Structure prediction request, 201 residues.
Amino acid sequence: MKMNKLVMATNNANKLREAREILSPLGLEVLSLSEIGIDCDPDENGTTFEDNAEIKARAIFNAIAEKYGENTAVFADDSGLCVDALGGRPGVHSARYAPKGQECEKLLGEMEGVADEKRTARFVCSIVYLDEAGKSFGARGTCEGKIGYEQRGSNGFGYDPVFMVGDKTMAELSADEKNAISHRGAAMRELCRLLKERYGE
Prediction:
């Protein structure tokens, strides 16, 4: 069966743009929650990224069915930053780790005095996709790096300005460069591959 639209459980313009770029070869119309008139903000109380992505996807899937009386394919992601020196924090609590816009400042404060070789970290993204029948499958991506010593760059959001990949922060990379290595990019490409397998080119 060929599908032509897919709802992403977000209103985040950055995430939506990234998803549309990576899924564009499938010829899918990727829609945000606001574009389909759904206002749903479930309590993401899972203990893993996969749990939270599933909670979001199910909630949106059910909200669409209730409002429009039809099932639509949905996918949701949950992602975060896992810092080894902090025992994996902020992890699943990345979005609530600090007030919006203050994440990097708080993280740099916690990492003060941590030696360079111990500043290893990774971004993790888990995606859960629900087809029109409500059956799910997942995709996961990671991006290894280090926590820098200052904020640099203006092309990213969240923790991007302090997450170093080589000699650049994620926020210093172009959109194409970021998509090529980012955790969300890796998870989205895996989702794209799985959808191609399922629905054909």
